[in-house]
Structures are given as structure tokens and as C-alpha cells.
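Comment thread on ticket #2218

A.B. wrote:
> Attaching the input chain for the structure job we discussed in standup.
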Amino acid sequence: MASTRFDWDPEKDAENQLKHRVSFGLAQYAFADPRRLIAKDVSHSQTEDRFYCFGEVDGGILTVRFTYRASVIRIILNPAVTLPL
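C.D. wrote:
> Ran it. Output below, let me know if you need it in another format.
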């Protein structure tokens, strides 16, 4: 994951932390899970391709909505709270 670059809107990150208690900084670790699943977000992909990443972080599963912008993963939303395994 050292070569993977992430980006996000700081205001959306703060909003997400208040609503879901998970930072985008933590959410990026879902991509490091070797068993992560990536699925296309067909409901929100009208102007750009968007995806979900489902990955384990700190003993739970995070769902992270994201898009690719050049070679950067842009985290858009982390709509799900960590679920215990």
C-alpha cells in the first residue's frame, strides 16, 4: 500500500467522522486487506465510475465508496460503520 496514493475532501472527512465515527484516513486501510472486495457502484456512477471497497480494518469490515482520479484513489464516502467480525 506504500505506493498507493489516496485523496479526499477534508470537509467530507470531518462530516463522515461526525456521522459514522470513522475517518477517511482509517478507511484507506480497507484497501490493504488482501481479501478486500471491489464492486462497481452502479447507483452513483452517472458522471464518473464509482466503486465500493469492502475490507477488514481493526477487526471489522469497512465499506468505502471511491473513484479513481488518474493514479490516485479518491475516497468519496465511508457510508458504513465498522462491523465486528
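A.B. wrote:
> Thanks. Noting for the ticket: The domain at 5-84 is CATH 3.30.2310 (YaeB-like fold).
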